[in-house]
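Hi all, posting the design record for the shared folder.

TITLE: backbone redesign
STEP: 1 of 1
STRUCTURE INPUT:
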């Protein structure tokens, strides 16, 4: 039984790592960014968790194909899924003029909805 639980633990950790990689990709890059304009960390894709069998080895190609759609080579899910999150864009000059707390509290909240799907 111990091996069963260890294997399940590794799979769950791999899913968490994959979710973290997806999250970092969408939070660091502007929606709809071209591959050539992506943050340098993602130019060669995202790390592929070794614990998840069936995924590409080492890295998974990921890219925006529109402002609201991300494709992933080796997508591990049967169906596309959507992610909803809120963000604030705080301008640097507002931070300099008002300080971070005031600039943050006065910035508008944007609602973002993105779709992840297989390429």
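Okay, here is what came back for every position:
SEQUENCE:
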């Amino acid at each position: 039984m111990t091996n069963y639980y260890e294997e399940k633990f590794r799979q769950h950790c791999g899913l968490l790592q994959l979710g973290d990689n997806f999250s970092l990709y969408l939070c660091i890059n502007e929606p709809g960014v071209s591959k050539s304009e992506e943050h340098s960390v993602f130019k060669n894709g995202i790390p592929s968790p070794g614990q998840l069998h069936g995924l590409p080895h080492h890295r998974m190609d990921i890219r925006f194909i529109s402002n609201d759609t991300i494709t992933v080579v080796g997508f591990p899910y049967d169906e596309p899924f959507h992610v909803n999150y809120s963000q604030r864009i705080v301008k640097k000059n507002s931070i300099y003029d008002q300080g971070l707390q005031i600039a943050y509290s006065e910035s508008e909240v944007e609602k973002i909805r993105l779709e992840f799907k297989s390429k």
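COMMENT: The two ends are 37 Å apart (CA to CA).
Let me know if anyone wants the other runs.
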